[in-house]
Amino acid sequence: MLEIAGLQVGYGEIRVLEDCSLRVERGEIVSLLGANGAGKTTLMRAVSRLIDPGAGTISFEDADITRAPASRVVEAGIAQVPEGRKLWPDMSVEDNLLLGAYAKRARAHIDRSLEEVYALFPRVKQRRRQIAGTLSGGEQQMVAIGRGLMSRPSLLMLDEPSLGLAPIIVAEVFASIRAINARGVTVLLVEQNVAGALELASRGYVLETGRIVMQGSREELLASEMVRKAYLGL
Amino acid sequence: MSYGLALIYGVLKIINLANAGILMLGAYVTWWMWDAFHLDPLLAPLIVIPLFFVFGVAMERLVVRRVLDQEPIVSLLLLFGVWLILQNVAYVIWTGDTRAIETPFVDATVKLGAMQLSWARIYVFCAGGITLAGLQLFLTRTHLGRAIRAVAQDREAAKLTGVDVDRVNAVAFGIGIALAAFAGSLLSLLFSFNPDFGGTLQLKSFCVVVLGGLDSFVGVAFGAVALSLAEAFGLRYMAASLQNLISFVVLVVVLIAFPKGIAGLLRSMRRG
Ligand SMILES: Nc1ncnc2c1ncn2[C@@H]1O[C@H](COP(=O)(O)OP(=O)(O)OP(=O)(O)O)[C@@H](O)[C@H]1O
Ligand SMILES: [Mg+2]
To answer: What is the pTM (predicted TM-score) of this model?
Structure first.
């Protein structure tokens, strides 16, 4: 479904990603693991076309999107829930969600999407008139995921959805990701909470200083000496 | 005019120094249509608003877009240059003579208790209020309006939901320019003008916008009221020629005391 080949991305002189390749198949949950500064966010920004790759290709459902405008990526069915949530803090929760359905592919289904998001996150429904910036971190993360779903994506990319949340909320967020996947949405999950991410994902990649250094099924990754040492602290 | 300035700043993060020039052109176009074609100046906005919207969109596409990513000084200078050009164009077409619109409506007055109010003033005041309400509805109830606010608050998040930021920039600039021209058209009913028209008003609207908060329209409306109160009080204690000084002083005080404006103040109070 998503195929990244030989991707190279940098900021000015600094190279962040070197020859990065990965693929995500329809229906999977794939996790992308890596320490701080490895380039996980950079990879997602390249897929969402917030940043131009220096070399390599990104294709989605067999269409090349390496140079497509950001809005076309959304129209094609990729949504990103960015690191740090990036809600519009001065807008109401509901306006944040409605804007998630800005893409043409989503406009006709707004009411249904909104219902689905509210069913997934009842807390968000209770707070729908509240200004987004006044929500708790966990609630904001739910709104951010809901906003991503409003565009009715076939691939949802989540960048560290557990960042800064209490363990009980993290469990809630992870459960919602599982529920989203069960409805047929493919998921690419970036996490530093490796144990949690590997519970959800069937496969994973490990990114280190801009390169994929390892890939495999959940079992392979959990059995790997490197993953156990560096990411699980075992 | 202040709304236009706030809208353009909020979305494109540039200060539109050409606003005064657009205001002046809006006044001239209104006057010219009245003078040459006997078009009632009250109907002029029907032409002025769409005309300047298109002009604003074109200006963004052709000129402003090229400097958006550069240092603020570049867009300031560019738009200052546009202002000068507009002034000179007006001198060439309409000469430097002072113009004024005089129709029975413009000169009519009404007595309200002890006050003598001109109909034109009431009309302009109402038009300002209706514009604010309309703008607020547009920005909160339509997809495009929400997209404009989204770009103003977080450009990247807007891109991530599929908003075409270039298009939003152009539309916001177009609306900002149309609002300035509309303001010019309205003010031509109250004041006589020449190609320098708008300069002092520009200062005042900076003040109003800064006072209100650079990206909040309700804040801007409060700012306008606050400034006119400050001026009215100031006038009781000092010479009229010093009136513009009040804008300056308020501007400086506000920038130092609460740089996010009234809206920012309210917001931080709400957040606790
Ligand atoms: N805008 C930028 N300009 C310059 N360098 C940047 C920029 N954004 C990120 N970098 C650098 O790129 C590298 C990778 O950053 P990135 O945010 O992709 O890492 P990450 O894997 O997402 O890390 P984290 O786990 O901390 O979120 C880092 O060394 C970072 O300093
Ligand atoms: Mg990151």
So the answer is: 0.83
- Residue bearing tokens 């599929």: B162
pLDDT digits (tens, 9 = 90+) for B19-59: 888 889 998 898 898 888 888 888 888 999 999 999 999 99
Residue of minimum CA distance from atom 18 in ligand 1: A39
Evaluate the CA torsion angle B28, B30, B31, B36 in order and state its sign.
positive
Please give the mean pLDDT across all residues of chain A. 93
Best mutation target among B11, B144, B160, B216 (most A Cβ atoms within 10 Å) is B160
Beta carbons of B215 and B10 less than 8 angstroms apart = yes
- pLDDT tens digits along A41-66: 999 999 999 999 999 999 999 999 99
Using CB atoms, which residue from B140, B150, B160 is nearest to A80? Answer: B160
A99–B159 C-beta distance less than 8 A: no
Sheet holding A14-24, edge to edge: A14-24, A2-11, A55-60, A63-64
Taking CA–CA distances from A88, the nearest residue in chain B reads B153
pLDDT for B208 equals 67
Contact B159 A147 (CB under 8 A): no
Ordered by where they begin, the domains of chain A are 27-49+74-230 (3.40.50.300)
